[in-house]
Fold this sequence. Notes:
This protein is 45% helix and 15% strand. It is α/β, with parallel strands linked by helices. Helix 4 runs parallel beside helix 5 (114-127).
Amino acid sequence: KPRLVVKSLANSMLLKRIAKAFNTQSFMVFHLPHAxxxxxxxxxxxxxxxxxxxxxxxxxxxxxxxxxxxKVQWLIDSADRLKNYLAYAKERNLQLRINLEIxxxxxxxxxxxxxxxxxxxxxxxxxxxx
Length: 130
């Protein structure tokens, strides 16, 4: 299914029109307030965060929006962020959906080499229930 990218301003009427036309409730969102708004508006929403979120924001989200946690995929750009998320998830007994951001050469963030990528995969694998 297509994933609609929500940047800058989340216009509810426009999003509903496009989501209906493409028969999707999948979104990439760059700001947690937009994610919350979409999660409340779409019962089957699937949110991919379009940028890594600081740990404190993840904590706030899980405290305020716990029922929506399974609908959100979190973007990870480093082993350190992954370890911080993992420690928090273990402390709170949470399951997080994780996506690894890869630097494709534009140097805008993300894992920049195969070694970093494989290290993060090993961390995920060692803590995954799947």
